[in-house]
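User: Hey, my collaborator sent me this sequence without any context and asked if I could get a structure. I don't really work with proteins. Can you help?
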Amino acid sequence: MGPWQAVVAFGSAFVAGAINSVAGGGTLLTFPTLIWLGLPSINANATSTVAIWPGTVGTIWGYRQELRTSSPRMLALAAPSVVGGILGALLLNHTPPAVFDALVPFLILFATLLFMVQEPIQRRLKISNPESHMSSHKSTRWLMGAMTFQLFVALYGGYFGAGIGILMLAALSVLGFTDIHQMNGLKALLGASINGVAAIYFIWARMVCWPEFVVMVIGAIIGGYGGALIARRIGGAAVRRIVIIVGLSMAASMFIKFLR
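Assistant: No problem. I've predicted the 3D structure and written it out in structure-token form, which is a compact way to encode the shape of the chain:
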């Protein structure tokens, strides 16, 4: 890998880390960049996942204050994240991607639209926080539903990864969370669980290209931490607009790719 390839790889990972800390979708930048640099698609996907993962650690640290105020019940979502992440990684290595790739734009578009209408949904359901406005029984039922949804998100995340941030933000919205920074902190924590187990498998299966990884992991960490700081400064409303723009752009790009 020459100097200019290293600069391109670092830059894409830096921007991807910042995007992931705000809305998710950074994989749609790093994955095609690695293909453009000459990596086979499967290796590019695996390398992108492993390289971007440490950036989520930077994002978690950036949102550490918001995570301290989150309900401990939400940590239960880590279990389906781990299970789905490893199953998705296994699927990537053993199944053809055509059918699943065809579903990607629909999943991203659905999740983005759900995020856009979260406030009317919350008013209709008369909730603003699942712990204070639901009975214990109903709250547990909703948490089990969220765990089931998270399992499928993690399955997709371990397989490809682009858009899992949007999907998780949508799920947290319906559960009643309204603080975008707290939601992003939880999203980063769960995303780290999903991609962490997938990354371990990709390394074990020797699917990672290490020169590209070394350059991109540095950019992802710096971008992830910096993105969390920027998100807090520009405010929740601006971040929500970014989430919607990123989600719709991702869906459109995937539809175009699918139609081709």
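In plain terms: The mean pLDDT is 78. You can pass these tokens on to your collaborator as they are.
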